[in-house]
């Protein structure tokens, strides 16, 4: 009799559990791209010592940076037709503007960047998620693209590792979301960011420009050698566009002595989290190659970096 009652009890429990589970709502999940490809716009060679190797280049530290976050790199040349860039846009899942030194309004670099920027604006407006990241000159380029004019001035911070003067917006930003509290404190107190620039956008100029002020949130500022307060970190209010005047990639992937590359545990952690952050933004883009063979042939893997520490501050450079 006891066995019959026990079996009846078990049957009721299992039936109840099944009914409860069946009644649970189905959770909808956004599609995720686990094979993100980040396009990196090549930089024009201007240094005489580098000219024998190619017309354009990408320092290997940027490639390693993206790869360390779980992404793959597609180098984007500056000599293609507009229709080809449009095709590439539909294949990549994000875009990185690297540091360097070019005319940000009249160069081929500026022309191609503007084309991709326009495509990214339209895509995001239509619900087609596409992120852009600008490092050093890349941040400067983003301000030119948004403002429609060059607002740069002397904000020299050459070969300096600095803490960030974080703004109130930093704690609620997408870029720093989820950062451990101790890292956020270190970011404001320790020299974790390598700076190698002569120009930037001052806070005063930024706030006086309606287009910049409405487009970006300032996440941090710093003070230049001449006392100018400049924007050092920013992110789009509406669009997934991000800019840093400093170099997160050098913390883990550049080592030349005499240069202020931060290598402390917190500096490494900062670089790692930001690489993962941007690559994860790329995962939200569902752009893809239609042809696997074209995809394989378009990525950085078929190129060999050149040892360049004897002529530059980079250990390795990809030339094109």
From TrEMBL:
This is folate gamma-glutamyl hydrolase. It catalyses: (6S)-5,6,7,8-tetrahydrofolyl-(gamma-L-Glu)(n) + (n-1) H2O = (6S)-5,6,7,8-tetrahydrofolate + (n-1) L-glutamate. The gene is LOC101071237. Belongs to the peptidase C26 family. It comes from the Eukaryota. Its EC number is 3.4.19.9. SUPFAM superfamilies: Class I glutamine amidotransferase-like. GO terms for biological process: tetrahydrofolylpolyglutamate metabolic process. GO terms for molecular function: gamma-glutamyl-peptidase activity. InterPro entries: Class_I_gatase-like (IPR029062), Pept_C26_g-glut_hydrolase (IPR015527), Peptidase_C26 (IPR011697).
């Amino acid at each position: 009799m006891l066995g019959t009652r026990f079996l009846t009890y078990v049957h009721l429990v299992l039936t109840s559990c099944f009914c409860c589970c069946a009644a649970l709502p189905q959770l909808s999940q956004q599609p995720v791209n686990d094979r993100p490809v980040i396009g990196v716009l090549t930089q024009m060679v201007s240094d005489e010592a580098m000219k024998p190797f190619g017309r354009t280049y990408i320092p290997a530290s940027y490639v390693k940076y993206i790869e360390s976050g779980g992404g793959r790199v597609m180098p984007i040349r500056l000599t293609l037709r507009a229709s080809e860039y449009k095709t590439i846009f539909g294949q990549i899942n994000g875009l990185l503007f690297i540091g360097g030194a070019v005319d940000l309004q009249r160069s081929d670099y500026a022309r191609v960047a503007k084309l991709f920027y326009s495509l990214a604006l339209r895509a995001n407006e239509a619900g087609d998620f596409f992120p852009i990241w600008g490092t050093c000159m890349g941040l400067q380029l983003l301000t030119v693209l948004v403002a429609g004019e060059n607002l740069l001035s002397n904000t020299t911070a050459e070969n300096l590792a600095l803490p960030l003067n974080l703004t109130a917006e930093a704690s609620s930003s997408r870029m720093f979301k989820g950062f451990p509290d101790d890292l956020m404190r270190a970011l404001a107190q320790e020299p974790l960011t390598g700076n190698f620039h002569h120009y930037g956008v001052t806070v005063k100029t930024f706030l006086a420009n309606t287009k910049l002020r409405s487009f970006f949130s300032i996440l941090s500022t710093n003070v230049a050698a001449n006392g100018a307060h400049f924007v050092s970190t920013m992110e789009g209010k509406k669009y997934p566009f991000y800019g840093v005047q400093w170099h997160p990639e050098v913390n883990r992937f550049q080592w030349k002595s005499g240069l202020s590359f931060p290598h402390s545990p917190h500096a490494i952690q900062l670089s790692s989290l930001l690489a993962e952050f941007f690559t994860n933004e790329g995962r939200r883009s569902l752009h893809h190659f239609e042809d696997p063979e074209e995809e394989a042939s378009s990525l950085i893997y078929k190129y060999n970096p050149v040892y360049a520490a004897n002529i530059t501050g980079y250990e390795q450079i990809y030339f094109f």
